[in-house]
Design brief:
InterPro entries: F-box-like_dom_sf, F-box_dom. The strands form 6 sheets. A 6-stranded antiparallel beta sheet has the order 5-6-12-11-10-9. Strands 15, 16, 21, 22, 23 and 24 form a 6-stranded antiparallel beta sheet that branches. A 4-stranded antiparallel beta sheet has the order 4-3-7-8. The protein folds into 3 domains: about 80 residues, Monooxygenase (Up-down Bundle); about 140 residues, no CATH class; about 150 residues, no CATH class. It is built from 9 helices and 24 strands. The protein is an alpha+beta fold and about 425 residues long. Helix 4 runs parallel beside helix 5 and helix 5 runs antiparallel to helix 6. About 0% of the residues have low confidence. A hairpin with a 3-residue loop joins strand 22 and strand 23.
Protein backbone atom coordinates (compact mmCIF):
# COMPACT_ATOMS: atom_id res chain seq x y z
CA UNK A 1 0.00 0.00 0.00
CA UNK A 2 3.01 2.32 0.16
CA UNK A 3 3.08 4.84 -2.72
CA UNK A 4 5.52 4.11 -5.53
CA UNK A 5 7.18 7.51 -5.10
CA UNK A 6 8.06 6.69 -1.49
CA UNK A 7 9.38 3.24 -2.45
CA UNK A 8 11.51 4.80 -5.18
CA UNK A 9 12.97 7.22 -2.64
CA UNK A 10 13.87 4.32 -0.35
CA UNK A 11 15.32 2.29 -3.22
CA UNK A 12 17.53 5.22 -4.25
CA UNK A 13 19.57 4.73 -1.05
CA UNK A 14 20.30 1.04 -1.77
CA UNK A 15 23.47 -0.36 -3.30
CA UNK A 16 23.49 -2.60 -6.39
CA UNK A 17 23.35 -5.92 -4.53
CA UNK A 18 20.46 -4.79 -2.31
CA UNK A 19 18.55 -3.50 -5.34
CA UNK A 20 18.86 -6.86 -7.08
CA UNK A 21 17.62 -8.63 -3.95
CA UNK A 22 14.69 -6.25 -3.53
CA UNK A 23 13.70 -6.88 -7.15
CA UNK A 24 13.04 -10.53 -6.25
CA UNK A 25 10.31 -9.69 -3.70
CA UNK A 26 7.40 -9.23 -6.11
CA UNK A 27 6.52 -7.91 -9.56
CA UNK A 28 5.94 -4.34 -8.40
CA UNK A 29 9.32 -4.20 -6.59
CA UNK A 30 10.99 -5.69 -9.66
CA UNK A 31 9.74 -2.90 -11.96
CA UNK A 32 10.56 -0.17 -9.44
CA UNK A 33 14.04 -1.59 -8.80
CA UNK A 34 14.71 -1.46 -12.58
CA UNK A 35 14.45 2.33 -12.62
CA UNK A 36 17.01 3.79 -14.99
CA UNK A 37 17.53 6.87 -12.82
CA UNK A 38 18.70 4.82 -9.83
CA UNK A 39 20.89 2.51 -11.89
CA UNK A 40 22.41 5.34 -13.92
CA UNK A 41 23.53 6.93 -10.67
CA UNK A 42 25.13 3.64 -9.57
CA UNK A 43 26.69 3.12 -13.00
CA UNK A 44 28.08 6.66 -13.11
CA UNK A 45 29.63 6.44 -9.64
CA UNK A 46 31.50 3.28 -10.64
CA UNK A 47 32.40 3.74 -14.32
CA UNK A 48 31.93 7.51 -14.84
CA UNK A 49 30.47 7.20 -18.34
CA UNK A 50 30.92 9.97 -20.88
CA UNK A 51 29.20 10.72 -24.15
CA UNK A 52 31.08 12.46 -26.97
CA UNK A 53 29.25 14.98 -29.16
CA UNK A 54 30.94 16.26 -32.35
CA UNK A 55 30.29 19.88 -33.38
CA UNK A 56 30.35 20.86 -37.06
CA UNK A 57 32.81 23.79 -36.78
CA UNK A 58 35.14 22.51 -34.11
CA UNK A 59 38.16 20.23 -34.25
CA UNK A 60 37.85 19.27 -30.57
CA UNK A 61 34.96 17.11 -29.40
CA UNK A 62 32.91 18.29 -26.45
CA UNK A 63 32.43 15.74 -23.67
CA UNK A 64 29.07 15.81 -21.95
CA UNK A 65 28.27 13.84 -18.81
CA UNK A 66 25.83 11.01 -19.37
CA UNK A 67 23.86 12.23 -16.35
CA UNK A 68 22.35 14.78 -18.72
CA UNK A 69 21.03 12.09 -21.05
CA UNK A 70 17.31 11.73 -21.32
CA UNK A 71 16.49 8.62 -19.32
CA UNK A 72 13.27 7.84 -21.15
CA UNK A 73 15.32 7.14 -24.31
CA UNK A 74 16.25 3.81 -22.74
CA UNK A 75 14.05 0.88 -21.86
CA UNK A 76 13.53 0.12 -18.14
CA UNK A 77 16.42 -1.90 -16.77
CA UNK A 78 18.88 -0.73 -19.46
CA UNK A 79 21.39 0.78 -17.05
CA UNK A 80 21.04 -2.15 -14.67
CA UNK A 81 22.09 -4.52 -17.46
CA UNK A 82 24.90 -2.19 -18.53
CA UNK A 83 26.22 -2.06 -14.97
CA UNK A 84 26.08 -5.85 -14.54
CA UNK A 85 27.74 -6.53 -17.92
CA UNK A 86 30.52 -4.03 -17.16
CA UNK A 87 31.17 -5.63 -13.76
CA UNK A 88 31.29 -9.11 -15.27
CA UNK A 89 33.59 -7.92 -18.08
CA UNK A 90 35.96 -6.31 -15.58
CA UNK A 91 36.23 -9.53 -13.56
CA UNK A 92 36.66 -11.60 -16.72
CA UNK A 93 39.54 -9.35 -17.83
CA UNK A 94 41.21 -9.77 -14.45
CA UNK A 95 40.78 -13.58 -14.57
CA UNK A 96 42.07 -13.84 -18.15
CA UNK A 97 45.17 -11.92 -17.12
CA UNK A 98 45.82 -14.45 -14.34
CA UNK A 99 45.33 -17.57 -16.48
CA UNK A 100 47.53 -16.35 -19.31
CA UNK A 101 50.93 -17.59 -17.93
CA UNK A 102 51.21 -21.36 -18.52
CA UNK A 103 53.19 -23.91 -16.49
CA UNK A 104 55.56 -25.77 -18.87
CA UNK A 105 55.20 -28.99 -16.85
CA UNK A 106 51.41 -29.19 -16.71
CA UNK A 107 50.45 -27.12 -19.78
CA UNK A 108 47.88 -25.41 -17.52
CA UNK A 109 47.67 -21.85 -16.18
CA UNK A 110 50.08 -21.21 -13.29
CA UNK A 111 47.68 -19.13 -11.20
CA UNK A 112 44.49 -21.18 -11.18
CA UNK A 113 43.98 -20.68 -7.45
CA UNK A 114 44.31 -16.91 -7.79
CA UNK A 115 41.99 -16.90 -10.82
CA UNK A 116 39.32 -18.84 -8.91
CA UNK A 117 39.56 -16.40 -6.01
CA UNK A 118 39.39 -13.36 -8.35
CA UNK A 119 36.26 -14.68 -10.05
CA UNK A 120 34.52 -15.37 -6.73
CA UNK A 121 33.89 -18.92 -7.95
CA UNK A 122 32.54 -21.56 -5.58
CA UNK A 123 30.72 -24.87 -6.01
CA UNK A 124 27.45 -26.19 -4.64
CA UNK A 125 25.49 -29.40 -4.97
CA UNK A 126 21.72 -29.41 -5.33
CA UNK A 127 19.87 -32.54 -4.23
CA UNK A 128 16.41 -33.00 -5.70
CA UNK A 129 13.95 -35.33 -4.02
CA UNK A 130 11.23 -37.35 -5.68
CA UNK A 131 8.66 -34.62 -4.89
CA UNK A 132 10.69 -32.02 -6.80
CA UNK A 133 11.96 -30.17 -3.72
CA UNK A 134 15.57 -28.94 -3.90
CA UNK A 135 18.10 -29.11 -1.06
CA UNK A 136 21.17 -26.89 -1.56
CA UNK A 137 24.42 -27.95 0.13
CA UNK A 138 27.03 -25.19 0.25
CA UNK A 139 29.38 -25.82 3.18
CA UNK A 140 32.60 -27.10 1.66
CA UNK A 141 36.34 -27.42 2.21
CA UNK A 142 38.71 -26.83 -0.72
CA UNK A 143 42.08 -28.48 -1.30
CA UNK A 144 44.20 -27.24 -4.21
CA UNK A 145 46.69 -29.43 -6.07
CA UNK A 146 48.94 -28.86 -9.09
CA UNK A 147 46.24 -29.79 -11.60
CA UNK A 148 42.96 -30.07 -9.67
CA UNK A 149 40.86 -28.81 -6.80
CA UNK A 150 39.18 -31.22 -4.37
CA UNK A 151 35.89 -30.11 -2.79
CA UNK A 152 34.36 -31.74 0.30
CA UNK A 153 30.74 -30.95 1.17
CA UNK A 154 29.41 -31.94 4.59
CA UNK A 155 26.38 -31.09 6.68
CA UNK A 156 24.34 -32.28 9.66
CA UNK A 157 21.02 -32.11 7.81
CA UNK A 158 21.38 -34.17 4.63
CA UNK A 159 18.00 -35.31 3.29
CA UNK A 160 17.23 -39.01 3.48
CA UNK A 161 18.87 -40.94 0.63
CA UNK A 162 15.72 -42.96 -0.06
CA UNK A 163 13.74 -39.87 -1.14
CA UNK A 164 16.43 -38.37 -3.42
CA UNK A 165 16.31 -38.66 -7.20
CA UNK A 166 19.16 -36.52 -8.61
CA UNK A 167 22.28 -34.65 -7.58
CA UNK A 168 23.50 -31.65 -9.59
CA UNK A 169 26.94 -30.07 -9.36
CA UNK A 170 27.07 -26.32 -10.08
CA UNK A 171 29.74 -23.70 -10.35
CA UNK A 172 28.47 -20.52 -8.70
CA UNK A 173 29.73 -16.98 -9.25
CA UNK A 174 28.41 -13.75 -7.71
CA UNK A 175 26.55 -11.60 -10.19
CA UNK A 176 28.49 -8.58 -8.94
CA UNK A 177 31.82 -10.01 -7.69
CA UNK A 178 33.25 -6.69 -6.48
CA UNK A 179 30.14 -6.02 -4.41
CA UNK A 180 29.97 -9.49 -2.80
CA UNK A 181 33.19 -9.91 -0.85
CA UNK A 182 31.32 -11.22 2.19
CA UNK A 183 29.80 -14.67 1.44
CA UNK A 184 26.04 -14.76 1.76
CA UNK A 185 23.41 -17.22 0.60
CA UNK A 186 21.12 -14.35 -0.40
CA UNK A 187 23.52 -12.47 -2.66
CA UNK A 188 22.68 -12.50 -6.39
CA UNK A 189 24.54 -15.36 -8.06
CA UNK A 190 24.76 -17.21 -11.35
CA UNK A 191 24.76 -21.01 -11.63
CA UNK A 192 26.59 -23.06 -14.24
CA UNK A 193 25.65 -26.74 -14.45
CA UNK A 194 28.77 -28.98 -14.45
CA UNK A 195 27.30 -32.46 -14.05
CA UNK A 196 24.10 -34.27 -13.11
CA UNK A 197 23.92 -37.64 -11.34
CA UNK A 198 21.01 -40.00 -10.73
CA UNK A 199 20.82 -41.34 -7.17
CA UNK A 200 18.22 -44.06 -7.67
CA UNK A 201 19.70 -47.36 -6.42
CA UNK A 202 22.98 -45.60 -5.61
CA UNK A 203 24.62 -48.58 -3.93
CA UNK A 204 23.77 -50.84 -6.89
CA UNK A 205 24.42 -48.55 -9.87
CA UNK A 206 27.69 -46.93 -8.71
CA UNK A 207 31.17 -48.31 -8.04
CA UNK A 208 32.05 -49.16 -4.42
CA UNK A 209 35.54 -47.77 -3.72
CA UNK A 210 36.11 -48.82 -0.14
CA UNK A 211 35.08 -48.31 3.46
CA UNK A 212 36.34 -47.65 6.96
CA UNK A 213 34.64 -48.16 10.32
CA UNK A 214 32.14 -45.34 9.78
CA UNK A 215 31.49 -44.78 6.07
CA UNK A 216 31.37 -46.54 2.73
CA UNK A 217 32.45 -44.75 -0.46
CA UNK A 218 30.70 -44.91 -3.83
CA UNK A 219 32.01 -43.37 -7.05
CA UNK A 220 29.80 -41.49 -9.50
CA UNK A 221 31.17 -40.76 -12.96
CA UNK A 222 32.59 -38.22 -13.56
CA UNK A 223 34.77 -37.48 -10.53
CA UNK A 224 32.33 -37.52 -7.60
CA UNK A 225 32.40 -39.52 -4.37
CA UNK A 226 29.44 -40.10 -2.06
CA UNK A 227 30.16 -41.24 1.49
CA UNK A 228 27.34 -43.12 3.24
CA UNK A 229 27.09 -43.81 6.97
CA UNK A 230 27.30 -47.56 7.41
CA UNK A 231 24.65 -47.85 10.11
CA UNK A 232 22.02 -45.48 8.68
CA UNK A 233 22.74 -45.75 4.94
CA UNK A 234 22.45 -41.97 4.78
CA UNK A 235 24.79 -39.43 3.15
CA UNK A 236 27.72 -38.38 5.34
CA UNK A 237 29.58 -36.23 2.81
CA UNK A 238 30.18 -35.70 -0.90
CA UNK A 239 33.65 -35.21 -2.38
CA UNK A 240 34.35 -33.89 -5.88
CA UNK A 241 37.65 -33.62 -7.73
CA UNK A 242 37.71 -31.12 -10.62
CA UNK A 243 40.60 -30.87 -13.08
CA UNK A 244 41.79 -27.34 -13.86
CA UNK A 245 41.57 -27.94 -17.62
CA UNK A 246 38.37 -26.19 -18.74
CA UNK A 247 37.39 -25.78 -15.06
CA UNK A 248 36.64 -22.05 -15.27
CA UNK A 249 34.69 -22.48 -18.51
CA UNK A 250 32.56 -25.33 -17.19
CA UNK A 251 31.99 -23.56 -13.87
CA UNK A 252 31.04 -20.14 -15.28
CA UNK A 253 29.89 -20.34 -18.93
CA UNK A 254 27.06 -22.86 -18.60
CA UNK A 255 23.49 -22.08 -17.55
CA UNK A 256 21.44 -23.35 -14.63
CA UNK A 257 19.97 -26.09 -16.85
CA UNK A 258 22.50 -26.69 -19.69
CA UNK A 259 26.15 -27.67 -19.38
CA UNK A 260 28.83 -25.65 -21.16
CA UNK A 261 29.63 -27.27 -24.54
CA UNK A 262 33.35 -27.47 -25.32
CA UNK A 263 34.31 -26.15 -28.75
CA UNK A 264 35.36 -28.88 -31.25
CA UNK A 265 39.08 -29.56 -31.60
CA UNK A 266 40.77 -28.34 -34.76
CA UNK A 267 43.04 -31.06 -36.22
CA UNK A 268 46.78 -30.30 -36.00
CA UNK A 269 47.77 -31.41 -39.51
CA UNK A 270 51.31 -32.44 -40.49
CA UNK A 271 51.93 -33.83 -43.99
CA UNK A 272 55.68 -34.30 -43.42
CA UNK A 273 55.75 -36.58 -40.36
CA UNK A 274 54.45 -40.08 -41.28
CA UNK A 275 53.95 -40.89 -37.57
CA UNK A 276 52.17 -37.69 -36.66
CA UNK A 277 50.25 -38.22 -33.43
CA UNK A 278 52.32 -41.18 -32.22
CA UNK A 279 55.07 -39.37 -30.31
CA UNK A 280 55.98 -36.25 -28.34
CA UNK A 281 53.49 -36.77 -25.51
CA UNK A 282 54.13 -35.59 -21.93
CA UNK A 283 52.35 -36.79 -18.81
CA UNK A 284 51.91 -34.98 -15.52
CA UNK A 285 50.59 -37.38 -12.88
CA UNK A 286 49.27 -36.55 -9.41
CA UNK A 287 48.15 -39.18 -6.90
CA UNK A 288 46.65 -37.76 -3.73
CA UNK A 289 44.13 -38.45 -1.02
CA UNK A 290 42.57 -35.04 -0.61
CA UNK A 291 45.03 -33.53 1.88
CA UNK A 292 48.06 -35.79 1.28
CA UNK A 293 50.08 -36.10 -1.94
CA UNK A 294 51.53 -39.55 -2.68
CA UNK A 295 53.11 -38.89 -6.08
CA UNK A 296 53.63 -35.85 -8.28
CA UNK A 297 55.74 -36.31 -11.40
CA UNK A 298 56.23 -35.39 -15.05
CA UNK A 299 57.14 -37.88 -17.80
CA UNK A 300 58.26 -36.68 -21.21
CA UNK A 301 58.88 -38.07 -24.69
CA UNK A 302 56.16 -40.72 -24.54
CA UNK A 303 55.51 -42.49 -27.84
CA UNK A 304 53.69 -45.38 -29.45
CA UNK A 305 54.97 -47.62 -32.23
CA UNK A 306 52.51 -48.51 -34.97
CA UNK A 307 52.78 -52.14 -33.93
CA UNK A 308 51.50 -51.22 -30.46
CA UNK A 309 48.17 -49.94 -31.83
CA UNK A 310 45.54 -52.57 -31.06
CA UNK A 311 41.82 -52.83 -30.32
CA UNK A 312 41.27 -49.15 -31.05
CA UNK A 313 43.94 -47.84 -28.65
CA UNK A 314 47.44 -46.35 -28.81
CA UNK A 315 49.69 -47.68 -26.07
CA UNK A 316 51.95 -45.23 -24.20
CA UNK A 317 54.25 -46.95 -21.71
CA UNK A 318 55.24 -44.59 -18.90
CA UNK A 319 56.76 -47.04 -16.39
CA UNK A 320 57.80 -50.49 -17.61
CA UNK A 321 57.77 -53.64 -15.53
CA UNK A 322 61.11 -54.63 -17.05
CA UNK A 323 62.96 -51.38 -16.34
CA UNK A 324 63.36 -51.19 -12.55
CA UNK A 325 65.37 -47.96 -12.80
CA UNK A 326 62.11 -46.11 -13.51
CA UNK A 327 59.99 -47.74 -10.81
CA UNK A 328 58.48 -45.09 -8.54
CA UNK A 329 58.02 -45.13 -4.75
CA UNK A 330 54.92 -43.54 -3.23
CA UNK A 331 55.07 -41.34 -0.15
CA UNK A 332 52.86 -42.67 2.64
CA UNK A 333 50.04 -45.19 2.72
CA UNK A 334 47.37 -44.66 0.08
CA UNK A 335 43.98 -43.54 1.34
CA UNK A 336 41.23 -40.93 1.01
CA UNK A 337 40.81 -38.50 3.91
CA UNK A 338 37.37 -37.19 4.85
CA UNK A 339 35.78 -35.19 7.64
CA UNK A 340 32.46 -33.82 8.85
CA UNK A 341 31.47 -31.54 11.72
CA UNK A 342 31.75 -34.38 14.23
CA UNK A 343 33.82 -37.16 12.64
CA UNK A 344 36.79 -37.73 10.37
CA UNK A 345 38.48 -40.76 8.88
CA UNK A 346 40.62 -42.28 6.15
CA UNK A 347 39.52 -44.96 3.68
CA UNK A 348 42.55 -47.03 2.69
CA UNK A 349 43.47 -48.44 -0.72
CA UNK A 350 41.78 -45.65 -2.70
CA UNK A 351 42.95 -42.24 -3.86
CA UNK A 352 42.40 -39.48 -6.43
CA UNK A 353 44.29 -39.72 -9.71
CA UNK A 354 44.96 -36.55 -11.73
CA UNK A 355 46.15 -37.19 -15.29
CA UNK A 356 47.26 -34.39 -17.60
CA UNK A 357 48.51 -35.65 -20.98
CA UNK A 358 49.99 -33.01 -23.31
CA UNK A 359 50.52 -33.30 -27.06
CA UNK A 360 53.84 -32.51 -28.76
CA UNK A 361 53.06 -28.78 -28.73
CA UNK A 362 52.42 -28.77 -24.95
CA UNK A 363 48.66 -28.39 -25.32
CA UNK A 364 46.39 -30.39 -22.93
CA UNK A 365 45.28 -33.47 -24.87
CA UNK A 366 43.58 -35.71 -22.30
CA UNK A 367 42.84 -34.54 -18.76
CA UNK A 368 40.84 -35.92 -15.87
CA UNK A 369 40.69 -36.07 -12.10
CA UNK A 370 38.89 -39.07 -10.64
CA UNK A 371 38.73 -41.23 -7.51
CA UNK A 372 40.12 -44.74 -8.06
CA UNK A 373 40.77 -47.78 -5.90
CA UNK A 374 43.43 -50.48 -5.66
CA UNK A 375 42.57 -54.13 -6.06
CA UNK A 376 44.71 -56.96 -4.74
CA UNK A 377 45.99 -59.04 -7.64
CA UNK A 378 45.92 -62.81 -7.50
CA UNK A 379 49.30 -63.16 -9.21
CA UNK A 380 52.52 -63.17 -7.22
CA UNK A 381 55.41 -60.82 -7.91
CA UNK A 382 57.84 -62.13 -10.56
CA UNK A 383 60.34 -59.36 -9.84
CA UNK A 384 63.47 -60.32 -7.95
CA UNK A 385 63.81 -56.83 -6.46
CA UNK A 386 60.38 -56.92 -4.82
CA UNK A 387 58.80 -59.45 -2.52
CA UNK A 388 55.25 -58.44 -1.72
CA UNK A 389 51.64 -58.30 -2.81
CA UNK A 390 50.76 -56.78 -6.17
CA UNK A 391 47.91 -54.28 -6.48
CA UNK A 392 46.33 -52.85 -9.61
CA UNK A 393 44.43 -49.65 -10.36
CA UNK A 394 42.40 -49.19 -13.54
CA UNK A 395 40.59 -46.16 -14.91
CA UNK A 396 38.65 -45.81 -18.17
CA UNK A 397 36.52 -43.22 -19.94
CA UNK A 398 35.50 -42.50 -23.53
CA UNK A 399 38.93 -41.10 -24.43
CA UNK A 400 41.32 -43.58 -22.88
CA UNK A 401 42.40 -45.95 -20.11
CA UNK A 402 45.05 -45.98 -17.38
CA UNK A 403 46.51 -49.20 -15.96
CA UNK A 404 48.75 -49.09 -12.88
CA UNK A 405 50.47 -51.95 -11.06
CA UNK A 406 51.92 -51.43 -7.59
CA UNK A 407 53.93 -53.64 -5.25
CA UNK A 408 53.65 -53.31 -1.46
CA UNK A 409 56.95 -53.75 0.37
CA UNK A 410 56.26 -54.91 3.90
CA UNK A 411 59.80 -54.24 5.14
CA UNK A 412 59.87 -50.55 4.21
CA UNK A 413 56.08 -50.01 4.42
CA UNK A 414 55.79 -48.39 0.99
CA UNK A 415 54.26 -48.87 -2.43
CA UNK A 416 56.25 -48.96 -5.67
CA UNK A 417 54.72 -48.31 -9.09
CA UNK A 418 56.24 -51.00 -11.29
CA UNK A 419 53.97 -50.64 -14.33
CA UNK A 420 52.10 -47.61 -15.68
CA UNK A 421 50.52 -47.64 -19.15
CA UNK A 422 48.15 -45.23 -20.89
CA UNK A 423 45.82 -46.38 -23.64
CA UNK A 424 44.55 -43.54 -25.84
CA UNK A 425 41.53 -44.00 -28.09
CA UNK A 426 42.47 -43.93 -31.78
CA UNK A 427 39.28 -41.97 -32.41
CA UNK A 428 40.56 -39.26 -30.04
CA UNK A 429 43.97 -39.21 -31.77
CA UNK A 430 42.49 -39.17 -35.27
CA UNK A 431 40.16 -36.27 -34.42
CA UNK A 432 42.95 -34.32 -32.75
CA UNK A 433 45.65 -34.79 -35.39
CA UNK A 434 43.58 -35.46 -38.51
CA UNK A 435 45.18 -38.91 -38.89
CA UNK A 436 43.80 -42.34 -39.67
CA UNK A 437 45.21 -44.95 -37.32
Amino acid sequence: SMPSEMLMKIFSYLDAVSLLCVGCVNRNFYHLANDNGIWLRIYSSCFRPKRTIWKMKSEQPETVSLDCARLHDRKPGYWKKEYIFKQIAAVKTRVMRLVKPVDPYTGLPCKNKEAIKASGLSWIIVLKDKNGKEHIMEKANLSFKDTSVTILWYSTNWPCLDILSTLKLFGVTPLLPDQSRVPSKNRPRRRSLIAEYHLANLTESSVALGADKLVQLFSLNPGLLVGLWKEKNEIAFVMGSLHYHQLLERSTLGSATVQYALPPDKPVLDDVDPEHGLHGYSLHLDMHGGSCTYLCGTFRSLFCRKGDIANGYLRLTVVSLKDNTKHLPLIGTLGLSWETDAFKGNVKDCYVMDVTLLDETGKPFWCFSAPVYMELSSKASSLYDYMGHIYSTDYADSEGKVCVELVWLEETKEYFIVNLVLYISTRKVNNWYGTNY
